[in-house]
Amino acid sequence: MDTGTVSALEFENVSYQYPSEDFDIVDNLSFQVEPGSFHCIIGVSGCGKSTIFRMTNGLLTPKHGVIRVDGASVAGRKGYCGYMPQKDLLFPWRPVWENVALPLEVKGGFSKQERRAQAEAALEDVGLSGCGDKLPQELSGGMRQRAAFARTMLTGSNLLLLDEPFSALDFLTRISMQEWLLSQWQKHQKTILFITHDVEEALFLSQSVLVVASTPIHTLTDIPVPAPVPRDRSCLKDPAMVELKEQLISMLRKQVGV
């Protein structure tokens, strides 16, 4: 990374221990990502990937170490990152626009008309124009995830944490959403960290893959993806990509003894 550039996210000697465990699941971890980059984090189930996100967004407090976003510690800060979990978590009793406008409602200082205008603009941006008055249950799974992404975008944050947002979708919807997300990233130039168990998904989306090679997490192995951006799914057939896919699968298999 260019030493003259402030990191979008930096962990410096960060550790975390769950109260029910007798070891640090994250142990003296240091890494950084550059502004406007897209990285997928992969690792076996239960290895601590989501713990990294929960510390970044303030849901968990590190045992020690410092987490910085845009060069400043996250301790005591609000609104510095957007978080999108696996489930869309849309309130079923609220129309879609009110769900999308939730970050503005929490932030305060916006009239209902202003919140609606910004929500409708965000929905249009993700291809859901005209869906604002629908209830979440009237949308397909892919449409609900787009609405959840629009809500995440309205946090106004440049750092977005996406925790397996497409894992519950069917195969065709999932690959459509992957292509859509890449286009959104290229359009808005946000910094995206994306947790996934799907190695192929990680390769298609990432500029580089951050691999949790062991637990406790001491390091994230940063592996560049040899495919230019913009890209389409044909890049997955490139011999270098096929070889890297097998390499990543092998790294994960070693963790589970398969």
UniProtKB/TrEMBL annotation:
Residues 9-239 form the ABC transporter domain. Gene3D superfamilies: P-loop containing nucleotide triphosphate hydrolases (3.40.50.300). Keywords: ATP-binding, Nucleotide-binding, Transport. The lineage of its organism: Bacteria, Bacillati, Bacillota, Clostridia, Eubacteriales. It comes from Candidatus Flavonifractor merdigallinarum. PROSITE patterns: ABC_TRANSPORTER_1 (PS00211), ABC_TRANSPORTER_2 (PS50893). This is ABC transporter ATP-binding protein. SMART domains: AAA. One of its GO terms (molecular function) is ATP hydrolysis activity.
